[in-house]
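Quick entry between incubations.
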Amino acid sequence: MAMSLISTAEDTSLRRQVYDSLREALTAGRFVPGQKLTFRFVAGALGVSLTPVREALRRLVAEGAFEMQPNRSVRVPLMTRAKILELRDIRIALEGLAAEKAAERASKRQIGRLRRIALEIATARSAGDSVTDRLKVREFHFALYAIADQPTLLRVIEGLWLQTGPYMNLLYPEFVSQPRGPETRARIIRALQSHDAVAARREIENDVRHALSYVADLADDSGNIAPASPMAAKRRRGGSKAAVPLELY
Amino acid sequence: MAMSLISTAEDTSLRRQVYDSLREALTAGRFVPGQKLTFRFVAGALGVSLTPVREALRRLVAEGAFEMQPNRSVRVPLMTRAKILELRDIRIALEGLAAEKAAERASKRQIGRLRRIALEIATARSAGDSVTDRLKVREFHFALYAIADQPTLLRVIEGLWLQTGPYMNLLYPEFVSQPRGPETRARIIRALQSHDAVAARREIENDVRHALSYVADLADDSGNIAPASPMAAKRRRGGSKAAVPLELY
DNA sequence: CAACGAATTTTGTGATCACAAATGAGGAGC
DNA sequence: GCTCCTCATTTGTGATCACAAAATTCGTTG
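Done. Structure below.
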């Protein structure tokens, strides 16, 4: 006995796979804000029955990743400026807290991992690989928060990232044109090395504030975002079945 | 048209009713930490099929209100001291933020409502009505947070209260023996009147810190709480069906 | 008498079916 | 030409069924 130090028995249910697929599509920006999804459509696209889709989508709705009109289909939420600012302030509070705890506990090994990820970001960015860039930036943040070793906090933060996910694409031009990221990450790593919780919090707070303030400025108050691809609505008609990039692994 | 200023079309689905029932039972302390629940048992107790129960329980598990072994039944989480302290720090950050925003926006009418609830708490407490007392204390907090007018923040806070819910019973003796509550609430109300966001945050932070530090001190590190009713396990056997207080309205 | 193992029961999972409410298309009326 | 009504279709909801994995029971063995 005592053989499960690292969580064995991972969840292989269809529900989970559907949940992960939708979540991944959401964070990868594969859904347009405002886009509608029906249960049957998702079930068809993933080749499963309605049952696991319902449970997965229901959960996502509860987490705020999708929203649902009274008894109708779900859609990717349209964010107003106010809502983005709300998420910004919550994320500042929580990610600041996580950074603080991380700075108190960080081991050399953990700091090394952060440094490695920071390097990968730099590599991807100089190669113009925006996909890897965004992925690694996310990885850096969550590697940092994982150091805090606070499971509930981590889960809440994941929920918040899920909500901002579809909008974080918009950030990329800003990333490249005004690269404050590299220095920020260097300062964070230094803060962890010296176990300076206050500095770590400050750096994360500024980072989140900067990113989400920028996104908020792109939004008007009615749920529209500036460079929204205009071919969002008006699908589901015409000849081609409009193959949607949704895959179940 | 334009007739739904106040959210009409409330959710009447069975899923929602099951969810609310379980949630209410949880916050009312009607479940013992560690208690196990099977889907079929809940379905039977509430007189519905498995389908809505699954969706409701799944959501509660995702919210951390219940936990689930790999593929087995759900149970009310056993909290370790570390987990309570984690929840404490998250709640301090978020409820402090909400109090701050509330202080900035509070109207005379909203402050009046808070004052009325504070009075009802005092009445219930002097009458020794612990049930109403706890209910109204909760009402006071959420009335305060609702003033902040930040729907996402409110939802996250509700999720956190849900997790601490089964343990908040333990607080009641402390409430009565060391009544710091009335003065705290008076100070909060004064802070809202003068729109003093800093003071409002400080009061809420101290309140949450005090309450959850107290609960944490009752817990050892293995998930047991001091005055746990010992007849928690070992049910489900013997003659009587052990009528469980779970009702669907 | 304690520990192991096979048989039985329990329990979550996923698919399917029936149904009512909401949606959208098409036609009648002003 | 525009609005309103009606009917066919779409869509979420809840119940039921079949099934495999996990838990429990109980008999057997050392």
